[in-house]
Design brief:
Blueprint (H helix, E strand, L loop, with lengths): L2 H21 L12 H16 L6 H6 L8 H31 L9 H32 L3 H4 L3 H26 L6 H20 L6 H17 L7 H20 L5 H17 L2 H19 L2 H6 L12 H20 L4 H25 L7 E2 L13 E2 L1 H20 L6 H27 L6 H23 L1
Antiparallel strand pairs: 1-2
Helix pairs in contact: 1-5, 2-4, 4-5, 4-9, 5-7, 5-8, 5-9, 7-8, 8-9, 8-11, 10-11, 11-12, 11-14, 12-15, 12-16, 14-15, 14-18, 15-16, 15-17, 15-18, 16-17, 17-18
Length: 475
């Protein structure tokens, strides 16, 4: 029974550290009253102070539990880790302030309300998430639950980060608008708060050696900065619908073990942006790719596992899979919202990129189950299954049919006028994009110049280009 009081004591110290971390966020309250230059100097001085802070400082005794005899080294490691995290947060603020100062009088300036929002997300948001995570972990420890159940702590805490981040980032913008002589479109402010918070939750969910106090504020800040430069805004109710709809679908993928937590938030970010910049149907079209990909990953999974060609982690997709296959679609969806005069061209390019992602996934997952001898796409000579650039007749047929499905959907839902042209252009873009993927695998990937994700990334843009060029030639 001595373990439980010890756990409670550790939790108490953890709560103290999170409260101090959240308190750093109140720096936002000073923003309207002191200039950016002073804020830059303050963040730099904070970095220096945390760098040379003595280990036996009285605050450390309050934040860290007194070690058992012989465990002095463990305490030192914890203190150093805590100081490093605090310093990383100060470094993040300094970097954002420095960018703001350097670009102050340019069209690409970094607004102060974006920096305030990034700080709010990375302090109030992450601290709230850590409170929830540690409380859940304590409950699991008391119940002696296993590690797989402990993973369930991550989703509730990430959702808390998302909700708290949106609220506090939005309030930070209102605070600046109230005290400074600036006008911020409230719709855009809410839009940026959502984008920044989803990005922060995504970075926090990615297993990495990079401290969250660097990745979360910089990731949130850069994403909000990017979209603030577009001056694009939507009504809050539309933004809220896009967020909830994307989150629910991402959660279903997570629960059915199609996606991990990082893929859930990647898909949420993609969904929000695609729905907001284009419309719901184009996100549903992308979801068709994820559903087909997840389903065919499970197709004859035991057989593919037995020959060493199965998708790792039981076929669960991560953020790398999401972004490598969907970045082209995201770029085109944003272009659709910004350049409506090129809507038809962008739509066909979008169909081509989704068809490429679908065709490539089906070709890989179905083609590896073929009993015929694969051939190398660059030499047409027999090769082994699973080799980069290896293709089979079954895989080519799967790529063709998968691309055709993507072309059929906008026809069925009445999103295009010329059904024959839509199916033909989409199928051609997807099929050729899939084979470009294979050529890249046989050349650049085989030489170590591109990873599998890199190949998918390039191929999806190639598929978009093929469909776009065919559309221009026919019109």
């Amino acid at each position: 029974m001595t373990g439980i009081p010890n756990i409670f004591e550790n939790m108490e110290h953890e709560y103290r550290r999170q409260l101090l971390h959240a308190a750093f966020g109140f720096l936002i309250l000073l923003f309207p009253f002191i200039g950016p230059e002073i804020l830059l100097i303050l963040s730099f001085l904070m970095i220096l102070a945390l760098t040379f802070l003595p280990e036996d400082w009285s605050l450390n005794r309050y934040l860290y539990k007194k070690p058992l005899p012989g465990a002095r080294g463990m305490l030192t490691d914890k203190i150093n880790e805590g100081l490093k995290s605090a310093k990383n947060l100060a470094i993040s603020v300094f970097i954002l302030m420095l960018i703001s100062a350097l670009l102050e009088f340019t069209p690409y300036r970094l607004p102060l309300y974006v920096i305030a929002g990034a700080i709010a997300i990375s302090t109030f948001g992450t601290s709230s998430a850590n409170f929830i995570r540690h409380r859940k972990q304590l409950q699991l420890l008391r119940c002696k639950s296993d590690a797989e159940e402990a993973e369930c702590c991550l989703l509730p805490s990430s959702i808390v980060l998302l909700g708290t981040g949106i609220l506090t980032a939005y309030l930070a913008g209102l605070w600046l608008m109230h005290w400074q002589d600036i006008t911020i479109d409230l719709n855009m402010l809410f839009f940026l708060a959502v984008i920044g918070s989803v990005t922060g939750a995504l970075f926090e969910s990615i297993p990495s050696n990079i401290d969250n106090n660097l990745s979360v504020p910089l990731g949130s800040g850069m994403s909000m900065w990017l979209f603030s430069s577009f001056g694009y805004s939507v009504p809050p109710q539309q933004m809220f619908f896009a967020l909830v709809f994307s989150m629910i679908l991402g959660y279903l993928a997570y629960k059915t073990k199609i996606a991990d937590l990082s893929a859930l938030f990647s898909a949420t970010l993609l969904g929000v942006l695609i729905i907001v910049f284009s419309e719901l149907f184009w996100f549903v079209l992308l979801l068709t790719f994820f559903i087909l990909g997840g389903a065919f990953t499970k197709y004859k999974y035991r057989y593919k596992e037995s020959i060493g060609l199965a998708q790792s982690k039981g076929g669960v997709r991560s953020y790398e899979n999401v972004f490598s296959n969907s970045t082209a679609a995201l770029v085109l969806a944003i272009c659709y919202g910004i350049y409506p005069q090129y809507a038809d061209l962008i739509i066909f390019a979008y169909l081509g990129t989704v068809a490429t992602a679908t065709g490539d996934t089906l070709a890989s997952e179905v083609g590896t189950t073929a009993h015929s001898q694969p051939i190398m796409i660059t030499t047409l000579k027999p090769t082994n299954a699973g080799v980069d650039g290896a293709v089979t007749i079954l895989g080519e047929i799967a790529a063709l049919l998968g691309s055709m499905v993507i072309g059929l959907l906008p026809v069925i839902f009445g999103r295009v006028e010329d059904a024959g042209m839509a199916i033909a252009i989409t199928t051609a873009g997807g099929f050729l994009g899939t084979n470009i993927d294979s050529i890249l695998g046989a050349t650049l990937q085989k030489r170590g110049m591109l990873s599998n994700s890199g190949v998918n990334f390039v191929a999806t843009f190639a598929g978009a280009a093929v469909s776009g060029i065919i559309y221009l030639l026919l019109n």
